[in-house]
Amino acid sequence: MEILEQLYEGKAKKVYRTSDPKLYMVYYKDDATAFNGSKKGSIQDKGYYNNQISAIFFKLLTEKGIPNHFVELTGERSMLVKTLEIIPVEVVVRNIVAGSLAKRIGKPEGTQLAVPVLEFYYKDDALGDPMINEYHVKALGLATEEEMKTISQMALRVNEILVEHLTPLNIQLVDFKLEFGRHEGEILLGDEISPDTCRFWDTATQEKLDKDRFRRDLGKVEEAYQEVLQRLTGGK
Ligand code: C5P
Questions:
Q1: Contact, 192 vs 28, CB < 8 A?
Q2: For 98, how many CA atoms within 13 A lie in the half-sphere containing its CB?
Q3: Do residues 71 and 135 both lie within one domain?
Q4: How much distance in Å is there from the Cα of 178 to the middle of ligand 1?
Q5: Does Ligase count among this protein's keywords (predicted)?
Q6: Model pLDDT for residues 210-231, shown as the tens digit of each residue
């Protein structure tokens, strides 16, 4: 199989067409952005960490029966994935109050939520990804009611699987963002699952092991990404 032309370059990844019409190659970059692109920088070896960490999570989810786009790792910073027609809805799952939810509801970061909270955002950089609900999704024709039911169930199940996996590694899964797409009539989980898209806190110290270290200039950014990979692999 051959890697053909670049189809798309996003803030953190590049997507390439391949000679197999059903597969894309995704390359993870070291570039980092925050606050809808207004803060720009680079995190050394982030592409490597996010590619490896995402692969571990996608393999786990495949084992647990969550259909997703991951096929195989092809390099330190690249993976082969199934082609997806991305649904422009970012799905956020929250277990603990942090980030934009802390601001919106006026509760301190770290407040435990009684049940996981599911939120939807319209994936549109020019609009700054505004929050929407399932009525907007249906009214704008972004996805059908049935697709949204599947997506919601999958997102909550992903949360259960990740929490179960991360708890023994002393990582609290505070919140995370998922993206979904259509592939041959099926809804698949796509994008990445990494410290760029999740909030991970050390259970004992509440130390942040994710992109908030970059967003908030907390230092030791690379070390945090490395620590997450290290815990997931047990140092192997
Ligand atoms: O900023 P906020 O608190 O709404 O983010 C919730 C979660 O979604 C965080 O884990 C964040 O990393 C992730 N997120 C993301 N991409 C966005 C917005 C949020 O990965 N565009």
A1: yes
A2: 22
A3: no
A4: 9
A5: yes
A6: 999 999 999 999 999 999 999 9
Helices of type H across the chain: 46-63, 99-105, 134-139, 145-166, 212-215, 221-233
Q: Cβ(173) to ligand 1 under 6 A?
A: no
Q: Domain of 183?
A: 86-220
Is there an atom of ligand 1 within 6 Å of 109 CB? no
CA distance 124 to 52: 27
The one-character DSSP state at 236 is -
If asked whether residues 128 and 172 sit together in one domain, one would say yes
User: Which are the contacts of 206, defined by CB distance < 8 A and separation ≥ 6?
Assistant: 110, 172
How far is 167 from 202, CA to CA, in rounded Å?
10
What crossing angle do the helices spanning 46-63 and 145-166 adopt, rounded to 10°? 110
How large is the average pLDDT for residues 194-214?
98
